[in-house]
Every structure is written in C-alpha cells, then in structure tokens.
Write the structure tokens for this entry.
Amino acid sequence: MSKNITIIPPSEGRPDVLRVAAYCRVSTDLDEQASSYASQIRSYTELISQHEGWELVDIYADEAASGTKTDKREDFNRLLADCRKGKIDRVLVKV
C-alpha cells in the first residue's frame, strides 16, 4: 500500500521584526498611582527598545479606569482594535 504525502510549506515565516505594544493601567488618581503609571510607561519603553528585533508599536495606557469594565478604558479598546487589525505581534502587561 503506497502512501501519498503532501508537504505544505508554511505560508508565513517568522517576522524579522516583532511588533510589540504595552498596556499600562492604574485604578486611581492618587499621586502614588500617578508615579506608578509613569514608571510603567518608562519601563516598557526601555524594555522594548533594548530588544533587538522588537519594534515599539505604542504604549496603550489608561489612568484612573476600572479594571472590571472595559467601556471607559479607551486605550485598552484601542489596543484590542489594533490587535484585531494585525498591527501587533506581542503585548506586554504588568501582572
């Protein structure tokens, strides 16, 4: 019994440049949260710039927005839209 094998090459290779975005959020307008917000943005910008082959798409950031609902998180929704459009390969977030 002869088996027919068809090899299908991948349609896309790995991209030379990984398009990376970061999402930052703080939940209150308190001064200590504001410094955390600025620190997150600075840290992500530096981290992405230090990786060869990573390209910063954008830093998406919502300040004083609830984490339980997305309707008032404008940048979070913009991030999701850009992901759906295929503009982003990887998203970094603070856990």
Observations:
- The mean pLDDT is 83.
